[in-house]
Amino acid sequence: MIDILIRVIIFLVAAPILGGLLDGLDRIISARMQGRIGPPLLQPFYDVSKLFQKQTIAVSKSQSLLIQMFFFTQIFTGCLFMAGFDIMLCFFILSTGATFLVFAGAVTHSPYSSMGASRELLQMLSYEPAILMTCLGFYLAAGTFKVEELVLSDYSLIVYLPGFFVAYVFSLTIKMRKSPFDLSTSHHPHQELVKGITTEIGSRNLAFYFITEWYENIFLLGVVALFIINKNPWSILAAVIVVLLICFLETLIDNTSARMKWDKMLTLTWIVTLVSAGTNLLVLMLIK
User: Quick count: other Cβ atoms within 10 Å of Cβ 254?
Assistant: First the structure.
């Protein structure tokens, strides 16, 4: 019990720090890819600090509550993951938290924000099958959904789940709102959505949104590590290397891809999920 409490506390403290640093590193690498110097590594923390100092003005009174619910559910997801609970339960709560973000965008009645909320739902429709297949893959490979048992496997689960890994990493581009799948939250204000679902989210609410994204990204990358980690302590180092490579890959894709339309995103994601994870599932059922 004390061990679980320590892991949860570490997540609560370290996740926003690591998430912010990865965000800052992503900005620097993106800038270098575009021939710019880029902001300092700690710029995300400066931005959040400045937002907390601004007066809170919400278009709708319920917006602040919805953003806070989004904030707490995503943190709760990470805590359950670090405590070693059911991976399926973690993703269910993660999806529940995402619906609070959708409501926060929809209640403003802004056309850009409402459109962003609708597109967020389409993104959820696209990546949820890959998420569910990933959870199923973990169960078939290790015989359990519990994270604490998955990390104590005799081998890295990616040995049996390469197709599921491909499907999950592909869906990760959508979940992290990277191009070509940043339909709901435009990265650049000159594009057609302005800032999409976050258009009417400002000051402290926007700061909470950024921090929530940091917690969420660390959890999502933690699942990537779950494919690699086993009872061998050296697997942790291998997992860190794989996670960093995936982060670089996501940044590269973000800077070399134009935004897709929602129907192409949905079709492509489901095809990748069915082909890679579906084929892996058939093979896994035959050999197990």
Answer: 21
3-state SS string for the chain: CHHHHHHHHHHHHHHHHHHHHHHHHHHHHHHHHCCCCCCCCCHHHHHHHHHHCCCCCCCCHHHHHHHHHHHHHHHHHHHHHHCCCEHHHHHHHHHHHHHHHHHHHHCCCCHHHHHHHHHHHHHHHHHHHHHHHHHHHHHHHHCCCEHHHHCCCCCCHHHCCHHHHHHHHHHHHHHCCCCCCCCCCCCCCCCCCCCHHHCCCCHHHHHHHHHHHHHHHHHHHHHHHHCCCCCCCHHHHHHHHHHHHHHHHHHHHHHHCCCCCHHHHHHHHHHHHHHHHHHHHHHHHHHC
- Domain range annotation of the chain: 2-287
Whether 56 shows a pLDDT value over 80: the answer reads no
Instruction: Using pLDDT thresholds of 50, 70 and 90, give the confidence band for residue 89.
Output: very high
Higher pLDDT, 18 or 109: 18
Looking at residue 190, its pLDDT comes to 46
